Amino acid sequence: MRQVRLIDEEGTQHGIVEIENALNMAREKGLDLVEVAPDARPPVCKILDYGKHKYLSKKKEHDARKKQHQVVIKEVRVRPKIDTHDLQTKMRKARELLEHGDKLQVNMLFRGREHGFRERGMTVMQKIKEELSDLSKVEREPRLEGNRLVMILHPLNSK
Questions:
Q1: Which are the contacts of 103, defined by CB distance < 8 A and separation ≥ 6?
Q2: What is the pTM of this model?
Q3: Cα–Cα distances in Å, from 25 out to 14, 18, 19, 53, 148?
Q4: What is the pLDDT of residues 58-84, one digit of tens each?
């Protein structure tokens, strides 16, 4: 006969018993015999209400998922010939996003003749990096991907 280590509904251990005896004890109490640790030698079984156990574990998992913050990458688009006031407006929005705890991707699109002014685009990106240095750290330095310059900022302290 196969043997199992038995734990009852109160948590007291009954030691190693035959599986038939464990099933009979569970039936007498009107509960289920659930295998808790199948890899142990001998396997550990517990007498409990399986429906209630399943409900509580699902509720616990739901509560844990509700409390975690999903990291979202938000995007701010700028141009190489952006004016100072427009840049301040974009930085104000970027600050809000970083304070909320989201990652920030700064995209700079180059069109037509702007391709000749890539160093100006890098200076604008450096301005953005310095402006937001108190709230964020650079996860990915500004780098050219096709016709756009991309930089990713990570918030220092996310909520």
A1: 71, 72, 73, 74, 139, 152, 153, 154, 155
A2: 0.57
A3: 11, 11, 10, 18, 70
A4: 999 998 888 877 778 999 999 999 999
